[in-house]
Amino acid sequence: MFGINQITWSEFLSFLALCLSAWYLFLIVYCWYRSKHKDNDRHFETSDTEIIPGTGLQPIAVYSHELPSTILPVNPVENQRVEASMYEETGIDDGMALDHFTQKNHPALAAKIDDFQCQQ
User: Fold this and answer.
1) What is the pTM assigned to this prediction?
2) What b/e string do you get for 83-116 counting C-beta neighbours within 10 Å, with b at 16 or more?
3) Residue 64: is it exposed, middle or buried by C-beta count within 10 angstroms (0-12/13-18/19+)?
4) In Å, what is the CA distance from 21 to each residue of 14, 16, 60?
5) Contact in structure between 104 and 88 (CB atoms under 8 Å)
6) In this predicted structure, what is the pLDDT of residue 21?
7) Burial (Cβ within 10 Å: 0-12, 13-18, ≥19) of residue 46
8) CA 59: distance to chain centroid?
9) For 20-78, how does the pLDDT look when each residue is reduced to its tens digit (9 = 90+)?
10) Cα–Cα distance for residue pair 1/7, rounded to 1 Å
11) In sequence order, what DSSP letters do the residues of the chain get, joined into one string?
12) What's the distance, Cα to Cα, between the start and end of the chain in Å?
């Protein structure tokens, strides 16, 4: 069908290389064309317009009494309380049957509830 069984690997790879080369050649030519025809004054540093006419620069007055008299620390050191969780070793835990948790008001679960550790 369509002669696909008659194409060799070398012809197929040559066709793929040709298509890939044509695609990259198209991209290079397209980017080169766009770089030649773009506006060069798109960046602030290269533009001719510096200041809007009539506005000018306005000076800012800074007085020494507005500044702090001492240098403020960058990272002020504060005592922060670090909480540690206490873990008590209770020995080997044999576990509990799943029925203790699935049945409502199971007596074995009620007896074991005080042994559970929880952190709030």
Assistant:
1) 0.33
2) eeeeeeeeeeeeeeeeeeeeeeeeeebeeeeeee
3) exposed
4) 10, 8, 60
5) no
6) 97
7) exposed
8) 40
9) 999 999 999 999 998 888 766 566 666 666 556 556 677 888 888 888 777 776 776 67
10) 12
11) -TTGGG--HHHHHHHHHHHHHHHHHHHHHHHHHHHHSS-STTSTTT-S--S-TTT--------GGGS-SSPPPSS----------------------HHHHHSTT-HHHHHHGGG-----
12) 73
Residue indicated by tokens 């960058």: 74
Per domain, the residue ranges of the chain are: 7-39
